[in-house]
């Protein structure tokens, strides 16, 4: 029944989500995993650098894409199935720690908990962690009552798998290892052949075994002796730096990328560290750089960092869902069923109920069950610590909710039992305690501003643009600029929509405004140059591209545009020299191949132009290849079969 209820509500949410702007248009972390998985599905199983993020989710998604092709529905369906199984695991945990009635309450609460359902619908590794967390807790509970080795071995296997999905789960594993040693008598004594030390050693061995594939990859990639990934160091710095507020995950300085999507945090970590050191660095060296920078920050401002840590603990228990990539309150408006459910069943309700349940379990449970409840409470504490060391947001807090749901169910059934037995004194005390906890966890303790309406509107507009729904995108961008007329990225994106609608003059006005609003970045100047060329102003285009290069000398798109502008001005020799320089750096740079082929074709160098064109078409993605074939400058050098198709 629990599985059926869980999957039914998830199915409703999934089918409603098909019509949302977000479906089929991943951005930020979702886009990172989606693009990574696509590369894996095409056979790119290793990389030149150590893993920045834990690899399990991307490789699982990549395997699925290799079988079924890149898509959005199937992964989300499977994640919802996994979430439905997790609800059953929560039922089993509550049954072992409390009783059957509490298990039913916990299972149904988990089946209907909107944040779990929402994040299962995101292409993010959090869906795996929200399954592995209750799975490890349940296996630990079974091991406490059943001394057979199979539970120890299963714990090690699941822990190792979970670690390469999200390494912070290792803190929970460490708690279990300590518990096994302390409670060694349950397995025949600490030093017995089957005792606590032996079992702890077996678990460590299995976890290390699972870490070996990513470790081998990282060593072979760039010599980094990093067991899983390298993102802990920079995220530790972001969460504890001088200007950290405890919940904002953005980097102190943005770095642009030109070409395939790159994670902004990964880009910042590498560029900032290499600039500071003055040479290229491996993944492990970057990790050490940021760990040392964090240590210097903490030791230099210890009292501030302690205060920040306490603030993050308060934020962890606060009822408000602090956004990371999406604002859950805004995003759920597109799925009415889950939105209405979320209005009554959310972390504002769960946090006080869960805390009350922890207190009641500590005070009332029989001695024989206190170890089980201790293990459950350690799970809550371990995850809280793993989050507050960095920064707090709804998504990173989420894996603690299955355990809090168990405690919340325990609190509800205990109060019900007291009321049913006529013990209104204890029920009243519990109700007062619940009211106090609800008040404390829902106070706006800090001057937070996590809700950023213009960014949510901007994200929706970007999604429509990504899917080619330009009229909808335009409507949302126009709504965006009414909310915040000083956000440069929004004007730049609005200009891109105008370009695709062939409103070049409107686009130029947007790009110029974006360039004025943010003088640091080069991308708006790229787009100004493009529009100037389209409008027949190569001098203005050349000036714009040089402004872009001044801000980002590595902006190869601007350098390619500069070559186009030079060619339009009749300075073909300079243009070809610029393109040759680009192709020395990257012989597979499609834009440079395309531009050089067009220049040579106009000069009458048909043979060389044809070679470059064929190379560009071979490398280009389908959309870009279609644009290349439509270039009038290349008509005379297109392959015969392409000309025939165009007719």
Q: What key attributes describe this structure?
A:
647 residues; mainly alpha; disordered C terminus
- Share of helix, binned: over 70%
Main pleated sheet: none
- Low-confidence runs of at least 5 consecutive residues: 643-647
Helix and strand composition category:
mainly alpha
* Total domains: 2
Gross morphology is elongated
Count of helix runs:
33
Q: What gyration radius follows from the Cα positions, in whole Å?
A: 28 Å
Beta content: under 5%
First-last Cα distance: 60 Å
- The residue-averaged pLDDT reads 90
Short description:
With 647 residues, this protein is an all-alpha fold.
Task: Set out the fold topology.
Elements: H1 2-17, H2 29-41, H3 56-68, H4 73-97, H5 100-111, H6 114-120, H7 126-145, H8 149-163, H9 170-182, H10 196-222, H11 231-240, H12 264-277, H13 283-300, H14 302-317, H15 328-331, H16 336-344, H17 347-364, H18 367-388, H19 394-397, H20 401-420, H21 424-441, H22 453-466, H23 470-483, H24 488-500, H25 504-517, H26 523-534, H27 538-551, H28 556-568, H29 572-585, H30 590-603, H31 606-619, H32 622-629, H33 640-646
Helix pairs in contact: 1-4, 1-5, 2-3, 4-5, 4-7, 4-20, 5-20, 6-16, 7-8, 7-18, 8-10, 9-10, 9-18, 11-13, 12-13, 14-18, 17-20, 17-21, 20-21, 22-23, 23-24, 24-25, 24-26, 25-26, 26-27, 26-28, 27-28, 28-29, 28-30, 29-30, 30-31, 31-32
């Amino acid at each position: 029944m629990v599985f059926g209820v869980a999957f039914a509500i998830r199915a409703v949410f999934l089918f409603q989500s098909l019509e949302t702007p977000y479906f089929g248009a991943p951005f930020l972390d979702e886009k990172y995993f989606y693009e990574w998985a696509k590369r894996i599905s095409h056979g790119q199983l290793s990389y030149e650098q150590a893993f920045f993020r834990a690899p399990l989710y991307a490789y699982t998604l990549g395997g699925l894409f290799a079988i079924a092709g890149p898509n959005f529905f199937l992964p989300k369906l499977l994640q919802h199935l996994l979430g439905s199984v997790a609800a059953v695991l929560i039922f089993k945990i509550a049954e072992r720690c409390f009783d059957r009635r509490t298990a039913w309450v916990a299972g149904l609460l988990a089946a209907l908990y909107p944040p779990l359902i929402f994040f299962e619908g995101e292409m993010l590794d959090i869906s795996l962690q929200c399954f592995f967390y209750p799975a490890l807790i349940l296996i630990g509970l079974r091991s406490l009552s059943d001394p057979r080795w199979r539970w120890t071995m299963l714990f090690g296997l699941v822990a190792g798998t979970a670690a390469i999905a999200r390494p912070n789960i290792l803190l929970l594993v460490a708690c279990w290892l300590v518990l096994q040693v302390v409670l060694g008598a349950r397995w025949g004594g600490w030093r017995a052949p089957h005792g606590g030390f032996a079992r702890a050693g077996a678990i460590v061995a299995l976890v290390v075994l699972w870490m070996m594939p990513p470790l081998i990859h990282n060593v072979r990639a760039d010599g980094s002796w990093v067991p899983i990934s390298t993102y802990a160091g920079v995220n530790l710095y972001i969460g504890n730096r001088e200007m950290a507020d405890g919940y904002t995950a953005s980097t102190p300085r943005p770095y642009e990328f030109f070409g395939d999507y790159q994670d902004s945090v990964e880009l910042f970590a590498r560029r900032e560290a290499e600039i500071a050191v003055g040479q290229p660095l491996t993944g492990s060296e970057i990790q050490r750089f940021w760990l040392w920078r964090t240590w210097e920050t903490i030791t230099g401002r210890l009292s501030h960092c302690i205060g920040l840590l306490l603030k993050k603990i308060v934020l962890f228990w606060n009822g408000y869902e602090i956004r990371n990539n999406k604002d859950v309150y805004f995003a759920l408006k597109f799925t009415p069923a889950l939105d209405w459910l979320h209005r009554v069943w959310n972390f504002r309700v769960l946090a006080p109920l869960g805390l009350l349940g922890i207190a009641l379990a500590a005070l009332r449970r029989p001695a024989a069950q206190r170890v089980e409840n201790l293990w459950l409470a350690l799970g809550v504490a371990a995850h809280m610590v793993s989050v507050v060391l960095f920064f707090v947001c709804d998504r990173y807090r989420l894996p603690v909710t299955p355990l809090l749901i168990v405690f919340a169910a325990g609190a509800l059934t205990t109060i019900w039992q007291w009321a049913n037995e006529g013990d209104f004194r204890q029920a009243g005390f519990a109700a007062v305690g619940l009211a106090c906890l609800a008040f404390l966890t829902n106070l706006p303790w800090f001057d937070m501003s996590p809700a950023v309406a213009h960014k949510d509107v901007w994200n929706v507009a970007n999604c429509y643009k990504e899917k080619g729904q330009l009229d909808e995108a335009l409507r949302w961008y126009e709504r965006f600029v009414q909310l915040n007329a000083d956000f440069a990225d929004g004007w730049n994106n609005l200009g891109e929509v105008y370009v695709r609608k062939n409103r070049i003059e409107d686009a130029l006005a947007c790009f110029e405004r974006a360039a004025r609003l943010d003088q640091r970045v080069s991308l708006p100047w790229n787009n100004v140059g493009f529009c100037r060329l389209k409008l027949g102003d190569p001098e203005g285009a050349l000036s714009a591209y040089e402004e872009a290069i001044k801000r980002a000398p590595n902006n190869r798109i601007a350098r390619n545009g500069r070559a186009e502008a030079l060619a339009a001005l009749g300075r073909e020799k300079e243009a070809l020299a610029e393109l040759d320089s680009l192709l020395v750096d990257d012989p597979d740079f499609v834009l440079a191949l395309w531009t050089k082929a067009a220049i040579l074709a106009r000069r009458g160098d048909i043979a060389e132009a044809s070679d470059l064109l064929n190379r560009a078409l071979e490398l280009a993605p389908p959309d870009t290849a279609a644009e290349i074939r439509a270039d009038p400058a290349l008509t005379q050098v297109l392959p015969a079969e392409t000309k025939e198709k165009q007719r």
